[in-house]
Amino acid sequence: MNESVVWLTIFVLSVFVGIEVISKVSSTLHTPLMSGANAIHGVILIGAVLVTGHTESTPTLIVGLIAVVLAAINMVGGFVVTDRMLQMFTGRKKAIARSEDAG
């Protein structure tokens, strides 16, 4: 069997497993789950930088550069989304406190 087919099969199966696992997480646990995922994205970014730094061929360098850019975008985007979610929860607490003070 071709090695590319094996890697593609593993990728597709991991997508299905990921969707099933994430869909089973309750909404109250999504923020801690995203924070943990952001930490993992940071490790992936460091790994991409280290691997790209030790490459000798141009195609590998290009793929490594793309990996570093995508990992950085993923990590920063994750932090932005987590921050927005936390602001959303903080906004609710402030609104509740104001309504209790008025009543």
TrEMBL record:
Membrane-topology descriptor: Multi-pass membrane protein
Principal cellular location given in the protein's record: membrane
The organism's taxonomic lineage, starting at the top: Bacteria, Bacillati, Actinomycetota, Actinomycetes, Propionibacteriales
Protein's name according to its UniProt entry: proton-translocating NAD(P)(+) transhydrogenase
Signal sequence segment: none
Gene Ontology MF term list: NADP binding; oxidoreductase activity; proton-translocating NAD(P)+ transhydrogenase activity
Transmembrane annotation, as ranges: 6-23, 35-55, 61-82
E.C. number(s) listed in UniProt: 7.1.1.1
